[in-house]
Amino acid sequence: MKSYDNFFLGVNDLTEAREYYETILGLQLKFDFSKKGMIAFKVGDEEPAIILKNKNIFSDIKPTIWFEVEDVEAEYRRLRDNGVNFLCEPFKIMTGMAVEFEDPFGNRLGITDYTDKK
User: What residues does the VOC domain cover (predicted)?
Assistant: First the structure.
């Protein structure tokens, strides 16, 4: 694992959540993909963002931490061979590949790479 990638939280209303995170918490908007059910906020100068996901679109959302890795496919195989039970097969995202799993205590984690970053 190279570093933290992003932190995902579920919300019921993206408009209300945006107002809270921007106005009340004072975080800067990183991106707005509301039509896809997500908006993200910067935390200081850090690259990892807090990404809010609309629970009406992502019904199984749980608070999730993603880690950046060099190659999701290779790390997926290594972790699977070490006994990690993944929630799905690796999937394509805008910047590369990703996959999620839960630890033995029910915490959701994920790995992603930037193999398609332009």
Answer: 3-114
